[in-house]
Structures are given as structure tokens and as C-alpha cells.
Specification:
Helix content: 10-25%
Number of helices: 6
Strand order of the largest sheet: 13-17-18-16-15-14
Radius of gyration: 22 Å
Distance between the termini: 39 Å
Oligomer: single chain
Number of strands: 21
Shape: globular
Length: about 350
């Protein structure tokens, strides 16, 4: 699985296995006399990590930082690094054999290429797949490098991506500082939880987590067909590259109002139902988060509703429920075996 984000209108893919977690841009600490594409550093769960600006690393002019920018925390070997990106869109499955390396004669001499190859993504769009190993050996990944002329690159003013908190207004500075404090918090070793990969979805104005191991991909509803004589939670079906995908609407089971038209699909596969899609308002991002034990779930849930949830995850400065989709299918009566 690869996380997709857009830069200059082009999609880039990052292996999800390399992503430790993702969070919205916090306050960063600038490093004086550092290379220009180093945005700064951040205290991430007690570890100080360098954070690079993707635009500057790729040799493009750096734009202004925004509150909606995302920091991808990447792991490679025994090192950790952050990468500031924007327009994070979705998760896609890319087969290793489908990645076509770029011809060596097209690359600059003595320059490491940060793109290991290209692959065909959804709707036949070409995706540039980042080379994580090359990214971590790029001079920007180090605070100092004897083979890299720091003063020479700093002379290229248009590449300067150093984070400057004073460029934000007072309200934005408060948000950035609070995010930095939350990210700096160490995980208590006694916490009865484990870090898990989750997709964060939006449904009727509420946020939920879904474990990534059952998700095949994300998609957009382009055309759906209603299915007659089916319960209300079966919203219809759609064609997904030649496969008929059953579409489920979870709002009634979760007692949520029908506020928006659902036009995004989380494509899943479970032993209970095989391949199907969950209709949602939006897909925020994929994160690695601690999931608290179900005993800490909010009070006021009846037994049936509680069985739909497998824990709480901390995301965007709040605790959100993690849905147990298999339990919802079985306990919620969503599997229909009747014939008409």
C-alpha cells in the first residue's frame, strides 16, 4: 500500500510501511546555518527529528506553510525523519512489479534521484514512487554533511524552507504551538494499548478510525446502481474496474444523521462479506496511533453499539472511536442471506 499526495499537480506515492505516523504541521524549531530545505526540527514523542520540506528537497521554490500541511514521519533503517507535504489524498495498492524504473541515461550525472520509478495508478494516472533509501541519504536528511556545501545551497534563497513562526498570525501560532506540545508527549509505557495503522474517515460530521489491515483501497463514487428489495443500509452497487462492489451506508447503525451525500468509498475485504465498500463523507489520512483498550470507551453506549467499537485512537487533538467493521457486519444484521 502507498500513500498518495500531490505536488505541482502530479501524484507521488510513499510506501505506507515507511510511514510511522502523520500529523498536521506543528511549530517547528529552525536550525541556524542549516541547509535550506531543512524546515526545522520537532520533538516527536521524546525524539528530536529533522523535518524536510518536500518542495525544497525536489529543487522547487518553497511556498508558504499552511495549517493544513501534513508532516509524514518516515522510518528507514534506524533513522527517523519528517517530510512536509500537502494535498495528501488517498491510499492505493501498487504492485512492486508494476513500478518501472527511470532510465539511467535520463538522470543527472552524480545526482541521486528521489524517484525510484513510476507506476500506473487509479484511472491510469502515472504515479511517481519515492525512493525512501535515496531520501534518507540525501544531504538534506542530515544536519551536517562534509560532502555538501551548505553555504552554497543557502545562497539559493528561493529554496529557503526554514520554518518561521512569526509568519503566522496569533491564532495560527497558538494552534501550531499546541500541536507541537501534543506531538512531544511521550507514550506512557503502562498504556494498555498498541500502535496501529488506521484510516481516519468522516461520516456525518463525525470522525472514526478503521484498521488498515482490512482496507484494500480508497475510491470515489462515480456512478452507483440501486438494488431493489434490499435493507436501507445497502445503498447500491458500483463497478470497480470490472468488479461489482456492494456499497454499505453505516449511518443508521451509528445513529448518525444523513447530512451529506456520500461520495467516497473505503474498499474493504472481510471473511464475512468478501469485497465491499463503505460510503463516507471523506477520508482524512492514514495514521499510526495508539488504540486504547475498549474498557475506556465513553459511557452511554448500549451493548450493541459498544460491540461496533474496538477502542479509541488519539487523532487531531481528540479521541475518536475505532470501528470494528466485522462486528458491525455480524452483530448489526448487515449480512443479508435472504432470497426474494
Amino acid at each position: 500500500m502507498h500513500m498518495i499526495f500531490y505536488f505541482c499537480g502530479q501524484p507521488y506515492a510513499v510506501p505506507n510501511a515507511s510511514i510511522r505516523e502523520m500529523f498536521k504541521l506543528p511549530e517547528l524549531t529552525a536550525v541556524e546555518q542549516s541547509i535550506a530545505c531543512l524546515s526545522g526540527t520537532v520533538n516527536c514523542r521524546g525524539n528530536i527529528i529533522p523535518v524536510l520540506d518536500f518542495a525544497a528537497v525536489m529543487g522547487h521554490p518553497h511556498g508558504c506553510y499552511h495549517l493544513d500541511d501534513v508532516v509524514m514521519v518516515l522510518d528507514y533503517a534506524d533513522r527517523t525523519m519528517g517530510l512536509v507535504v500537502s494535498d495528501v489524498s488517498e491510499l492505493q495498492s501498487i504492485a512492486e512489479e508494476s513500478i518501472v524504473p527511470l532510465p539511467a541515461n535520463l538522470l543527472q550525472e552524480n545526482q541521486s534521484c528521489l524517484v525510484r520509478g513510476q507506476a500506473t495508478g487509479r484511472d491510469q494516472a502515472l504515479l511517481s514512487v519515492l525512493d525512501i533509501a535515496a531520501l534518507f541519504t540525501h544531504p538534506a536528511a542530515y544536519l551536517s554533511d562534509t560532502e555538501f556545501d551548505v553555504q552554497q545551497e543557502n545562497a539559493c534563497h528561493h529554496l529557503d524552507a526554514h520554518f518561521d513562526l512569526q509568519r503566522f498570525d496569533a491564532a495560527a501560532r497558538k494552534i501550531l504551538s499546541e500541536r507541537a506540545r501534543n506531538i512531544a508527549r511521550r507514550i506512557a509505557p503502562a498504556e494498555p494499548a498498541g500502535s496501529e495503522a488506521l484510516a481516519i474517515i468522516h461520516l456525518s460530521g463525525e470522525s472514526f478510525g478503521i484498521r488498515l489491515d482490512g482496507i484494500r483501497e480508497f475510491a470515489v463514487v462515480r456512478r452507483s446502481m440501486p438494488l431493489p428489495s434490499c435493507p436501507a443500509h445497502i445503498a447500491g452497487s458500483m463497478n470497480l474496474r470490472g468488479e461489482v462492489l456492494l456499497l454499505l451506508d453505516l449511518r443508521a447503525a451509528l445513529h448518525l444523521a444523513e447530512r451529506n451525500k456520500l461520495d467516497k468509498v473505503v474498499v474493504m475485504r472481510t471473511p464475512e462479506l468478501g469485497l465491499f465498500g463503505l460510503l463516507v463523507d471523506g477520508i482524512a489520512q492514514v495514521v499510526h496511533s495508539l488504540v486504547a483498550h475498549p474498557s475506556r470507551l465513553p459511557a452511554g453506549l448500549d451493548k450493541l453499539e459498544e460491540s461496533y467499537l474496538s477502542g479509541l485512537a488519539h487523532w487531531d487533538d481528540s479521541d475518536i472511536p475505532v470501528l470494528d467493521i466485522s462486528a458491525m457486519l455480524v452483530n448489526g444484521g448487515m449480512i443479508v442471506n435472504e432470497t426474494v
